[in-house]
Write a structure and sequence with these properties.
About 60% of the residues lie in helices and about 0% in strands. The chain is mostly helical. It has a three-stranded antiparallel sheet. Helix 10 packs parallel to helix 13, helix 12 runs antiparallel to helix 13 and helix 13 packs parallel to helix 16. The N terminus and C terminus are likely disordered.
C-alpha cells in the first residue's frame, strides 16, 4: 500500500508541474473570467476583481451572474482568503501571480456585457448611448432562501423557554436557530412622533404608486423637516400595516433610506433605522436589504450612534441574520466585532439582547464561528458573561455554536469553560430550566473529539452533577445529561487511558486493540444526538 501511495503522489506532482491544470472556478473573476489579482467581496457577497467591480459601479451596471442574481457593488472589501488561495495555487502550479488588469480592456468587457444585457431585454442602444452610461437603477433580480420568523413547527422546543437549544438528529452539535422579532420593533420611543401629526395620517388604506411617489419626494428632499416627516410616516406605515412592507421595499426607496441612516440629525437617523427594522421583518426583503449595502452603515451606527440608534441597528442586524443567505455576507462585512462590543458595553438592554441573538444566528455559519473565536478575548468574555443571570440564556446559545468547531472547543477549554458550566449546573437555583439544558448541551459539544475534556470534567466533578440532573432535571435535561455521561464513561470495552498513562503499564494491551476501540467510540460519538 505504501508503494501505491507513493506512485500516486508522483503522478499528481508531475501533473501539477506541467501547468495543464486550470484554476478553480471560484478563483476567477465572474466578469473577466481571469485569475484575480486583487479579489474583493462586494455587498451582495460575491467576489470579483477589484477593477472589474469598480468599473461596473462607475457605469452603474450590475451583470447577471450564472445563478440569475445581480451583484451589488456599493461596498468592496479585500478578500484576503481568496487572495491567499490564488497565491498558493500559482505556487503549486509554477504559475506567475496574475498582474492587475488593464483599465481599457476591463471597460471594453463591461461595455460588451452591458450591450448583451440590453439585447437580452429587447432594448437596442447605440454605442454612444452605452458610453454615456446606463440606467441609474437597473433591474435587479434577487434569489433568497425563505426563513420563517415564527417557531419551526417540525422541531421540538422546550416549554420553559424559547431560548433553549435544540440539537437535531442530523447534527448533534449545532443548536437549531430559533426566530423572534428584534426588541426594538415593539418600542415606543421619543423619536416616534406619529399619533399627533394629522398631516402624516394617510387617507387610503393601502398606499399605491402616488403615495410612494410622495414618500420618495420627501425622502429625497434637501429639507431636513421633509426628510423627518417622510421617515416618520414610513415608520408608521411599515409598523402598523404588515402587508405594505414588501410592496414598499423597492430599490429606490431602500436607496433613499440608506442615505438617511447616515444623517447627522438624530430624529431622521433613528426613524430611518426603525423603518429599516420594520421592512426587514418580511422574508422577501431580507436579502434585498443586505444587497442594497445597508450592513456597513449599520455597523457604523453600532460603533458610534446614539443609544436608540444602536438599538435599531442591532435589531436590524439580528433580523437580517435570520436569513441563511445573509449570514456569511454580514460576517464578511465586519458586523461581528461591533456586535460583540455592543453585547458587553451597550447601555441599552435591548441593544445587548439583539446583539446576542444576532451573534447566535451568525455563528450558525462555520466561517463566522472562526472569525468570532479569533477575536481577542472573545471566548473568555463570553464565558464570563454566561455566569451573569441577565445574559446567561443568550450567551449560552452562542457558546453552544462556538463549541461545535475545533477552534471554538480549544479556546473554550483554555478559558475554563468546563469548570464554569459545571459550576452553573451545581447551583441549586438557576434562572430557568432552559439554562440548565443549554449548559449540558454546551458541555456535550465540548466533549466531542476532545481528549482534554474528560480530565477537565473530572477535575470539576462533573459526573456527580450530571448524575443529579439525570435523576431530577427536566425531561430534556435528563436526556442530555444521560447522553453526556454515556459519552464520558465510554464503552465497557474501552481501555482506561488515564490509568494506563499514569501506571505506565501497557504490557498485554496491544495498541491495535486500543486503536480499534477508540475508533468505534468516536464513531458512536459522531452519531449520537439529543
Amino acid at each position: 500500500m505504501g508503494g501505491n501511495g507513493k506512485h500516486r503522489w508522483k503522478i499528481s506532482f508531475y501533473r501539477s508541474n506541467s501547468g495543464s491544470r486550470l484554476p478553480p472556478k471560484e478563483l476567477l473573476c465572474p466578469i473577466s473570467g481571469s485569475l484575480m489579482s486583487d479579489p474583493v467581496v462586494v455587498s451582495s457577497g460575491q467576489t470579483f476583481e477589484r477593477l472589474s467591480a469598480q468599473v461596473c459601479r462607475d457605469f452603474g451596471f450590475s451583470p447577471k451572474l450564472e445563478d440569475g442574481s445581480r451583484p451589488d457593488f456599493s461596498t468592496m472589501i479585500s478578500n484576503l482568503a481568496i487572495k491567499s488561495t490564488i497565491q498558493n495555487w500559482c505556487h503549486h502550479n509554477n504559475t506567475e501571480y496574475p498582474q492587475a488588469p488593464d483599465l481599457f480592456s476591463v471597460e471594453k468587457t463591461v461595455r460588451t456585457l452591458i450591450a448583451d444585457d440590453r439585447e437580452d431585454q429587447g432594448i437596442r442602444v447605440s454605442e454612444r448611448e452605452l458610453l454615456n452610461g446606463v440606467a441609474e437603477t437597473p433591474p435587479i433580480m434577487y434569489t433568497h432562501a425563505a426563513t420563517e420568523l415564527g417557531r419551526r413547527v417540525d422541531h421540538f422546543y422546550s416549554s420553559s423557554s424559547e431560548d433553549s437549544v435544540v440539537i437535531p438528529s442530523a447534527s448533534p452539535l449545532t443548536p437549531l436557530p430559533f426566530a423572534t422579532r428584534p426588541s426594538c420593533y415593539s418600542s415606543s420611543s421619543s423619536s416616534e412622533i406619529i399619533a399627533e401629526d394629522e398631516t402624516l395620517n394617510p387617507n387610503s388604506s393601502s398606499p399605491g404608486c402616488e403615495e410612494e411617489e410622495q414618500l420618495m419626494m420627501k425622502l429625497r428632499s434637501s429639507e431636513v423637516i421633509e426628510q423627518e416627516e417622510a421617515v416618520i410616516l414610513l415608520r408608521k406605515l411599515t409598523r402598523t400595516k404588515e402587508e405594505l412592507r414588501v410592496s414598499l421595499c423597492t430599490l429606490r426607496l431602500l436607496s433613499a433610506v440608506r442615505s438617511l441612516i447616515v444623517s447627522r440629525y438624530s430624529t431622521v437617523q433613528q426613524n430611518a433605522l426603525a423603518s429599516l427594522v420594520n421592512l426587514s421583518l418580511e422574508k422577501p426583503n431580507k436579502v434585498k436589504i443586505v444587497r442594497s449595502g445597508f450592513v456597513p452603515h449599520l455597523v457604523d451606527v453600532l460603533k458610534g450612534g446614539s443609544n436608540e440608534s444602536q438599538e435599531h441597528a442591532a435589531g436590524a442586524l439580528f433580523s437580517l441574520a435570520l436569513e441563511e443567505d445573509n449570514k456569511m455576507a454580514i460576517g464578511v462585512l465586519g458586523a461581528l466585532p461591533p456586535l460583540m462590543h455592543a453585547l458587553v458595553r451597550a447601555e441599552s438592554v435591548r441593544t445587548r439582547h439583539d446583539s446576542a441573538l444576532a451573534l447566535y444566528h451568525l455563528t450558525l455559519v462555520e466561517s463566522n464561528r472562526v472569525k468570532l473565536v479569533k477575536q481577542p478575548n472573545a471566548i473568555p468574555t463570553l464565558v464570563a458573561l454566561a455566569k451573569s443571570p441577565a445574559s446567561a440564556s443568550r450567551v449560552l446559545l452562542i457558546l453552544c455554536n462556538l463549541a461545535s468547531c475545533n477552534e471554538g472547543r480549544s479556546a473554550m477549554l483554555d478559558a475554563n469553560a468546563v469548570e464554569c458550566l459545571v459550576g452553573m449546573l451545581r447551583k441549586s437555583e438557576l434562572e430557568s430550566e432552559s439554562i440548565r439544558e443549554n449548559c449540558v448541551a454546551a458541555l456535550y459539544a465540548l466533549s466531542h473529539g476532545s481528549m482534554r475534556f474528560r480530565g477537565l470534567a473530572r477535575e470539576a466533578k462533573a459526573v456527580e452533577v450530571l448524575g443529579e440532573i439525570e435523576k431530577n432535571g427536566s425531561e430534556r435535561a435528563r436526556e442530555k445529561a444521560k447522553r453526556l455521561l454515556t459519552e464520558m464513561r465510554g464503552r465497557e470495552d474501552e481501555p482506561n487511558w488515564d490509568s494506563v498513562l499514569e501506571s505506565g503499564a501497557g504490557v498485554g494491551l496491544g495498541p491495535t486493540r486500543y486503536r480499534v476501540g477508540v475508533g468505534r467510540n468516536l464513531h458512536t460519538a459522531n452519531s449520537t444526538t439529543f
